[in-house]
Write a structure and sequence with these properties.
The protein is α/β, with parallel strands linked by helices. The chain has two domains: 193 residues, Alpha-Beta Complex (Quinone Oxidoreductase, Chain A, domain 1), CATH 3.90.180; 145 residues, NAD(P)-binding Rossmann-like Domain (Rossmann fold), CATH 3.40.50.720. The chain has ten helices and 19 strands. Strands 3, 5, 6, 10, 11, 18 and 19 form a seven-stranded mixed β-sheet that branches. The chain has a six-stranded mixed β-sheet with strand order 8-7-2-1-4-9, with no helix packed on it. It has a six-stranded parallel β-sheet with strand order 14-13-12-15-16-17, sandwiched between helices. The longest helix has 13 residues. The radius of gyration is 21 Å and the shape is globular. The structure holds zinc ion (2 copies). The site of one zinc ion has 5 residues, from loops.
Length: 371
């Protein structure tokens, strides 16, 4: 389908901790590509970190919008169709994709849109101030348009509001998928979740959907614990005034028959808490770090004894073609809550305020309204 280059606003990180809102040019899609008119984009801690990635960079990796144009050979999409973007783009046929480990795709870096000046066949792409510009995770959703590979796009059901749908592509998928796909929470299991932000609350939803019998939500902010109960937590524990976690460990043990939880998740983003799940689980239990916390952390190796498993899963084990339709169904059935997670809405120009609200723990999930 032929179409012209379009222009529109985008948030561009400078690589030194700052950003500007400015106009970008986005070329028509080449073979295998889709140009998406973004309607809404979720704001995540990773976006804040991306301010210091090598720039300039069109920011944003959670997004939903409408197909605006499709390139040669793209099938299964029509112009105007609502779609969701996923940031771990699987090729579908490498060693890892063939074994169902899509987030570990070995060819994902090839699944980018070639840029003007690249030696590859189709010299298109996204430009800022006349020069090709990179996009976060090959997407760049804090923009009016994103030119992406078709493998990054999943159709959305027509009745799901895009300002809710956009958070499915990162926070919801990571949380729910870590509980269901990775930890394999089973009916009756006991689950502890450390940190009730955008990811932790979705671990709680995933554990509830899987039929967990005991779901212990742990946080220092009372309002987050209230929301955790609405989303499925059966017990809440505050970490306030318990810096060495002595009370926390005793209470989790007491709530789990003196044994420890079957699964414990760290979703705080704080490296010093990354190994705490090992102390919250029973022998043979699953400890998971799902926050993507960076930085050094140490643990006594004895914490890993007694057949405990420690995992740091990527993207909740997301297989887009399997998992996103399942999330849509759960939302349609009232099992997966989205509306109460999106606590704040902003224009692109107010990204600074979105970051402050996120870092201060005021917002559960902020969403940029682009269109
Ligand atoms: Zn692959
Ligand atoms: Zn994210």
């Amino acid at each position: 389908m032929s179409s012209a280059t379009v222009t529109g606003p985008a948030v561009i990180a400078d690589g030194e901790g700052r950003f500007v809102v400015d106009t970008i040019e986005v070329d028509p899609p080449g073979p295998g590509e889709v140009r998406v008119a973004i309607a809404a984009a979720g704001v995540c801690h990773t976006d804040h970190a991306s301010l210091c990635w090598p720039g300039p960079l069109v920011m944003g990796h959670e997004g939903a919008g409408h197909v605006e144009a499709t390139g040669e050979g793209v099938e299964g999409f029509v112009v105007g169709q609502p779609v969701l973007l996923n940031w771990a783009i699987p090729c579908g046929n490498c060693f890892q994709c063939a074994r169902g480990a899509d987030p570990l795709c070995e060819r994902t870096h090839e699944l980018d849109v070639p840029r003007l000046g690249d030696s590859r066949a189709h010299p298109g792409g996204t430009r800022w101030r006349g020069r090709p510009v990179d996009r976060a995770f090959h997407l760049g959703t804090f923009a009016s348009h994103a030119l992406v590979r078709a493998e990054a796009v999943t159709p959305l059901p027509p009745n799901l509001p895009l300002e809710l749908a956009c958070i499915l592509g990162c926070a919801v998928m990571t949380g729910v998928g870590s509980a269901i796909n990775v930890a394999n929470v089973l009916p009756g299991d006991a689950v502890a979740v450390l940190g009730c932000g955008g990811v932790g609350l979705n671990v709680i939803q995933g554990a509830r959907i899987a039929g967990a019998g005991t779901i212990i939500a742990i946080d220092r902010v009372p309002a987050r614990l209230d929301l955790a109960v609405r989303l499925g937590a059966t017990h809440v524990l505050s970490t306030d005034g318990d810096a060495d976690h002595v009370r926390l460990l005793a209470e989790v043990r007491e709530l789990t028959g003196g044994r420890g939880a079957d699964h414990a998740f760290e979703a705080t983003g704080r490296p010093e808490l990354a190994f705490l799940p090992l102390q919250l689980v029973r022998n043979g239990g699953n400890a998971l770090q799902v926050s993507g916390a960076h930085g050094p952390a140490t643990l006594p190796l004895t914490d890993l004894f007694w057949n405990k498993r420690y995992m740091a899963p990527l993207y909740g084990g997301c297989v887009p073609s399997r998992d996103f339709p399942r999330l849509y169904d759960w939302h349609a059935q009232g099992l997966l809550e989205l509306a109460s997670l999106v606590s704040h809405r902003y224009r692109l120009e107010s990204l600074d305020r979105a970051f402050v609200d996120m870092l201060d723990g005021r917002s559960t999930k902020g969403v940029l309204l682009v269109a």
